[in-house]
Write a structure and sequence with these properties.
Layout: E1 2-6, E2 13-17, E3 23-25, H1 35-39, H2 42-53, E4 76-80, H3 84-89, E5 99-103, E6 108-109, E7 115-117, E8 124-125, E9 128-134, E10 150-157, E11 160-161, H4 162-166, E12 182-183, E13 188-190, E14 201-206, E15 209-215, H5 223-230, E16 241-243, E17 265-270, E18 274-282
Parallel strand pairs: 4-16, 6-12, 7-18
Antiparallel strand pairs: 1-2, 1-13, 2-3, 4-5, 8-11, 9-10, 9-16, 10-13, 14-15, 14-17, 17-18
Bound molecules: zinc ion.
Zinc ion binds at residues 78, 127, 129, 158, 243, 245-246.
Length: 284
């Protein structure tokens, strides 16, 4: 199934793309895509509910705004430097253990919402990433069972302000958390629809120029490893997002570096998970 959320910011409703290709409003099911939804096995229940109710669900019209494909989760955990070539372009060593950092959940937004370049920013950068959404509570998970804890996958642009991230002291979180820095979606694609999440092409263009193009086959740490690893430091709750790191081709890695300015158009996508487009604007 492909789950999406649509409507005005803060008032999103849940939707599903049916196997027929029809996009329907599933508000009648009675739950948004929240922690509670995933905790209560909402994906299976929604699938069952649709067998009876799909025909009577209202159609979602083309042109509706997409919201983030899940409601605000308890956390967004990002993995740093999970592709060897990106580590090299960042001037960093290949990590021996995954580098983890948090991204504020208020950064979450729809896949085609404007990118708001923060006040005093001169180094806003792009990062296409495969995001994994957790399906059930995970604490001290073994590698062997780790994939049982996945609900599905989505496209994420892990926007990063490099000065805030790297030159202002302390943790990366400062450069990762501005409003609109986490467009997620358009769809949460349930894991049964993705044969191998370690064989997905991901790409990103800026103003039509191809900047990133890689495959998740190049991960340093794969998805079950990351879930198992993270769950040894914290409990992952249903709906939590793990963003698996970006491949090479970010602005920071160019010579000279290139950063986003108002008017820039950023497009990105991942095989089977859909595409996003953001237009960069100045913060009010
Ligand atoms: Zn990232």
């Amino acid at each position: 199934m492909k789950l999406f959320r649509f409507g005005k910011e803060g008032q999103e409703k849940p939707g599903v793309i049916l196997s027929s290709g029809r996009s329907v409003d599933v508000s009648g099911f009675g739950s948004d895509y929240t922690e509670k939804f995933f905790t209560e096995d909402g994906i299976s229940k929604l699938k069952k509910w649709l067998e009876q109710h799909a025909d009577s669900c209202p159609e979602v019209k083309w042109g509706e705004r997409f919201g983030s494909c899940i409601a605000r989760p308890s956390k967004i955990i990002c993995v740093g430097l999970n592709y060897a070539k990106h580590a090299a372009e960042s001037g960093a060593e290949i990590p021996k253990e995954p580098i983890l950092f948090f991204k504020s959940t208020t950064a979450l937004c729809g896949p085609n919402d404007n990118l708001i370049i923060p006040r005093n920013s001169h180094k806003t950068d792009w990062e296409v990433e495969l995001a994994v959404v957790i399906g059930k509570k995970a604490t001290y998970v073994e590698f062997e069972n780790a994939m049982d804890f996945v609900a599905g996958y989505c496209t994420h642009n892990d926007y990063s302000e490099r000065e805030f991230q790297l030159e202002r002291g302390g943790q990366w979180v400062k450069g990762k958390s501005a409003d609109s820095f986490a467009p997620l979606g358009p769809w949460l694609v349930t894991k049964d629809e993705i044969a191998d999440p370690h064989k997905l092409r991901l790409w990103l263009d800026v103003n039509g120029q191809h900047m990133q193009d890689s495959t998740t086959a190049d991960f340093i740490f794969n998805i079950p490893f990351l879930i198992s690893y993270i769950s040894k430091f914290m409990t992952l709750l249903p709906g939590d997002v793990i963003s698996t790191g970006t491949p090479s081709g970010v602005g920071l890695g160019l010579k000279p570096p290139k950063y986003l300015v108002p008017g820039d158009i950023i497009r990105l996508g991942i095989d089977g998970l859909g595409e996003q487009q953001q237009v960069a604007i100045k913060a009010p």
